[in-house]
Amino acid sequence: MTNIPVNAVDVSNLTVKFGDFIAVNNISFSVEKGEIFGFLGANGAGKTTTIRVLCGLLLPTSGKVKVSDVTYEQGIEAIKAKVGYMSQKFTLYNDLSIHENFAFTASLRKIPSDTLKRRTKELLEFIGFSKPMNTLVRDLPGGIKQQVSLAASILHDPEIIFLDEPTAGVTPVARARFWALIKQLAKDGKTIFVTTHYMDEAEQCGRIALMRTGKIIALDGPENLKKTTFPEPIIELNPKGTIPSELIEQLRINKAVDSIDSYGMKYHLIIKDPQEWNQLSINIAPYFVIRQIPPSLEDVFIRLVEGVTR
Amino acid sequence: MNLQFNFKRALSIAKKEKFHIMRDPFTLTMATILPVLLVLIFGLAIEFNVKDIGLTVHDSDRTFSSRKLVEVFSSSQYFNINPSRGSIVDAINDLDSERSKASLIIEPEFEHNLLAHGNTKAQFLLDGADNSTAGVILGYLGGIQKAANFKLTGTLVKEPIELKTRYLFNPELSSPWFIVPGLAVVVIAILSILLTALTVAREWENGSMELLLSTPVQPLEIIIGKLIPYTVIGLAAVLLVVLVAILGFGIPFAGNIMLFGIGSLIFLIACLAQGMLISVLIRTQQLSMQIAMVTGLLPSLLLSGFIFPLESMPKVFQNFTSILPSKWFMIISRGIFLKGADFIDLKLPFLGLFLLCSILIITATKKFKKDLEP
Questions:
Q1: Which residue does chain B place closest to A83, by CA atoms?
Q2: Residue finishing a domain among B103, B123, B153
Q3: Nearest to B304 by CA among B192, B205, B189
Q4: SS3 A283
């Protein structure tokens, strides 16, 4: 291989089966070093299973997996040493203090005590933690817990950090703060692999993989995903008052229109023929405030993940 | 694959487990209150020597001899005489109404027969519904009969063969002597099975198992690490029971304390492994706890010979009890405590205990390994 930028994660033809159930179906992708890689999909799409394979918690049924230049053939312990994993569930011990939690994790990973001291100081500064180290974890607010949990999972300074729905159930302010930390980590050269249900979080990823029933159905940057999913502009129609009910049906069969869907009180219209649309837009101007809008990631998600099943 | 057992990591687990124990009011309360409570309940409240037995006397004879017979009963300090209210039916009704445990019915010819024929009869009715009390009363009757013979005829009857019984190891047949050494078994069983039944289930429920999984820690390290602090608690509880037995109840410790300690340790580890196995299999704290209660309490109380002798059970049950560690440790505990038995005397129970302990640990570790390893 002569590629200069070594990939942090290389997955080819990965399949994971649980009995007859195929959780991950022949997926291939790569994640570059220093990238924030988002994993999107409905529950049960195979996100967590994929992550567990990449963290050395689950053996692949078939396919090749290379994590930070380590393959499964070199042993799962070698993989575990290279990655940090923060699971969906909150994994710190509530009845232990922050220091005790850190010391415990460190001792399982055989981190020497002077390294532990240095890393603890660095990480607590990094997350801006100012309370005493002997505070019990159960006494921390939810958002802070999440940040401390992140710190604990990167105590051994891993090259790749896997975050499985890290911000589920915390306040929007705490989410924003958590993402600032994620971005900082990526800036420092860490590779971040994150799953989320929040579209605003997905927007902040370098690239996104969309998963559905064990397969990756789209993989690109957020902007590219929007462009490729919606090559035509989206027009928002905001009714000025009550509109004749047959008007929407007429628009639906109009040559200029590809599709029209209601979004709350408004309508999203996709153009088929721009020339025809110019004329049509003048005709319907009395009824609607017309505005061209960029597609959101949510539009993409709905069209790709849910649209296919319709 | 690197499967090296690292003792330092096991110690880290043990240290972490210590924090859990120290900060969990439930565990601490259980560990201290339970042994004390059990010793109090079983050591003081259970008394096999029955006293103040209600005895309804229906005396139709009303002679010097019949009064003498009643006197023998009343002066024996075991019986409280309830005088009959006239009808012989009362003697039976009193048993029905629990007013008395036994009735003595003396027929009108009692004295006449004694004087005329040299022997006479009286009827003794016993409430057989409560068979343990009935057994004890039956035991008293032999002595009372002797005393009555002497009082009524003035001579000691010479029996052709006289059996003289001397009780070894517990000369006064004191209940605490019998009960308290057995309590070591019950205390260890309940305490250790219950405490460990929660530890692995708790990790699954809290999600902290994920944390353990993402580190290089090995299943055996987790099992050993978790066993260490509970072993300490269990040994402390045994020590407490032994001290209470010696100092509180004045039971002499006849055997080798080291041998007793080793036996306790093997039994303790067997129970801890049993709790661990429950926890590994069940994974939820609530259900684990219920199963631990049943499998910890019932065998040690009912099927270990603690109160009910195994010898009186059906053969099938007797054979079944051999797979219960508590049966073997019961033999060891009473043997060393009261009889001063040595290892040679107890090699079979020790072997049984050791085998069961090994099987439990291996099963728990294997199942745990299967769950944890990818």
A1: B214
A2: B153
A3: B189
A4: helix
Q: Kindly state whether residues B345 and B204 are assigned to the same domain.
A: yes
Whether the predicted model's global pTM rises above the 0.80 cut: no
Distance from CA of B204 to the nearest CA of A (A): 10
Query: For B182-228, what is each residue's pLDDT tens digit?
Result: 888 888 898 888 888 888 888 888 888 888 888 888 888 999 999 99
The listed CATH number (1.20.1250.20, 3.30.70.100, 3.40.30.10, 3.40.190.10) that belongs to domain A231-294: 3.30.70.100
pLDDT score recorded for residue A3: 47
Q: Are B303 and B223 in contact (CB under 8 A)?
A: no
Minimal-distance CA residue of chain B relative to A75? B1
**Average pLDDT for consecutive 10-residue bins of chain B (374 residues)?**
73 93 86 84 72 86 88 85 80 83 88 84 85 80 82 69 73 77 87 87 87 86 91 90 86 90 94 92 90 89 86 87 92 90 92 94 88 69
**Torsion (CA) B91, B95, B101, B103 in degrees, nearest 10:** 20
Do B238 and B289 fall into the same domain? yes
B36 and B58 in a single domain? The answer is: no
* Structural domain boundaries enclosing B239: 7-46+173-372
Of A76, A91, A107, the CB nearest to B210: A91
| Identity of the residue in B1, B13, B23 whose CB atom sits nearest the CB atom of A95 | B23
Looking at residue A137, the DSSP 8-state letter turns out to be: G
What is the CATH superfamily name and number for domain A7-221? P-loop containing nucleotide triphosphate hydrolases (3.40.50.300)
Instruction: Looking at B154-174, list the stretches that DSSP marks H as alpha helix, in order from N- to C-terminal side.
Output: none
- Judged by a CB distance cut-off of 8 A, whether residue B210 touches chain A is yes
Closest in A55, A75, A91 to B208, CB measured: A91
Same-domain pairing of B269 and B288: yes
Q: Give CA separation, A233 vs A275, B39, B354, in Å.
A: 13, 82, 77
B228 falls within a domain: yes
Residue B124 belongs to a domain: yes
CA distance A177 to A164: 17
Which residues of chain A have a Cβ shorter than 8 Å from any chain B Cβ? Answer: 55-59, 75-77, 80-81, 83-85, 87-96, 100, 104-105, 107-110, 152-153
> Does pLDDT of A309 surpass 70?
no
Q: pLDDT value at position B1?
A: 39
Q: How far is B19 from chain A (nearest CA, A)?
A: 7
d(CA A195, CA A39): 4
**Residue with more model confidence, A301 or A179:** A179
The side-by-side arrangement of strands in the sheet containing A215-220 is: A83-86, A160-164, A191-195, A36-41, A207-212, A215-220
A83 CB neighbours in chain B (<8 A) are 214
Domain extents for chain A?
7-221, 231-294
Per CB-CB distance under 8 Å, the chain B contacts of A110 are: 6, 8-9, 216
Asked whether residue B163 is domain-assigned, the answer is no
pLDDT of residue A310: 38
